[in-house]
Design brief:
single chain, about 375 residues, alpha/beta, TIM Barrel, seven-stranded parallel sheet, four-stranded antiparallel sheet, 9 helices
């Protein structure tokens, strides 16, 4: 039968209504995320590399994020949220129009112990086609939350939406033992580039101090310890959040000392992956201090913004190799791994000495000089 024009419009409208009803039917999820073999994040059963910079809240930022090379953004719900506001709905819709996935952040709701509101928000968010994961709580250790309360929040989210993974982030090693019996699908750990006054320019000194004010351990050493501890506790993947911003007015830092240089940020990325991180994220674009989006006249911030597209593209290309076979060839202060996958192999080496140039023997390449914080990536097809 040939449909008349009114019939065609009526039929098309009916099909659109049915499609919308199916996609947003309560209790169903437009996409599934899960954790697969080798602690890989799966999106609808396929490996997915989440490339994300925290803390944009403006729709106007989304095009910038796409140009930088991001595929995921975050949306933080306020602690008094009871339903998805029109602002939240517009933001999620704008992400869908740009094919950007969303990490839904419930930290404020959980810190306020708003359990019923948490469940209500998740019921709305879970059916959105671009939802990637539920960011249940950030740094619970600083808000007096107990293990039982964190698990309660996780249980509410998982019971409401079993189709998407859950995520909890801790500030470095502070939460590894205090929350050892919590059960997120993914653990997150912050990773800070600290450069101390009077300390050689190694971006990986920790600000734990002895009585004379000297660093007691490098951040990299502590990070490896944390990864080993998490691995002993759980099979969940560990993601590392690379801090690439400045906090002015903090006694620990001089002016602009917390911004890593582009070379340091690249070094941080590969040191985290070489040391055992399953993925990385970046923090942050816009928040409550001098961050990348606000520091328009700061050369350090602008250098990072200019370097991000190339670094993110490189990370997206090499991350799948880290999810395959990995052989550690490190000899401090050289971090080096051999990766195999997709009928190729890769060598990733980082000189993290802080001030010394290293002459290193790289398999398949030979001897090579690496400057402080220089990253070498090489490889070829497997013969």
């Amino acid at each position: 039968m040939v449909l008349t024009s009114p019939q065609t419009r009526w039929y098309a409208g009916l099909c659109l209504w049915i499609a919308c009803f199916v996609v947003f039917l309560p209790g169903s999820a437009a996409h599934n995320t899960s954790i697969g073999p080798h602690q890989v994040l799966l999106l609808d059963g396929k490996p997915f590399t989440c490339i994300m910079l925290y803390h944009q809240q403006s729709i106007a930022d989304l095009e910038t994020f796409k140009k930088l090379g991001m595929n995921t953004v975050d949306y933080a719900f306020p602690r008094d949220a009871r339903t998805m506001s029109s602002t939240a709905k517009d933001f999620f819709a704008a992400c869908a129009a740009r094919n950007l996935h969303v990490m839904a952040d419930y930290s404020e709701l959980v810190r306020a112990r708003q359990w019923e509101n948490l469940s209500a928000i998740v019921k709305e968010v879970m059916v959105h086609p671009m939802l990637l994961l539920h960011y249940v709580i950030d740094e619970p250790e600083y808000y007096g939350l107990t293990e039982d309360e964190v698990n309660k929040a996780l249980d509410i989210v998982k019971r409401t939406d079993p189709h998407h993974v859950t995520y909890v982030v801790h500030d470095r090693w502070n939460g590894v033992d205090a929350y050892a019996h919590t059960h997120p699908d993914i653990w997150g750990v912050d990773y800070y580039p600290i450069r101390w006054n009077g300390v050689p320019p190694n971006a990986f000194y920790d600000y734990d101090k002895d009585t004379q004010g000297h660093p007691t351990a490098t951040t990299l050493e502590r990070l490896r310890t944390v990864f080993a501890r998490y691995d002993a506790l759980t099979e969940a993947p560990i993601w590392c959040i690379l801090q690439c911003h400045n906090i002015p007015g903090d006694d620990y830092y001089g002016a602009n000392r917390r911004y890593p240089t582009p070379a340091e940020l690249k070094g941080m990325l590969y040191l985290a992956l070489n040391s055992g991180a399953d993925a990385v994220q970046f923090y942050n674009w816009l928040s409550y201090g001098n961050y990348l989006a606000l520091d328009q006249n700061n050369p350090a911030a602008n250098a990072l913004k200019d370097a991000l597209p190339k670094l993110l593209a490189e990370y997206g290309e090499i991350h799948p190799y880290y999810q395959q076979a990995r052989v550690d060839l490190s000899k401090p202060p050289l971090s080096m791994v051999r990766l195999t996958g997709q009928a190729k192999w890769r060598i990733v080496a980082v000189n993290y000495s802080g001030q010394d140039t290293l002459l290193v023997d790289i398999p398949g390449t030979g001897k090579r000089t690496l400057m402080p914080m220089e990253v070498f990536i090489g490889g070829t097809h497997i013969q």
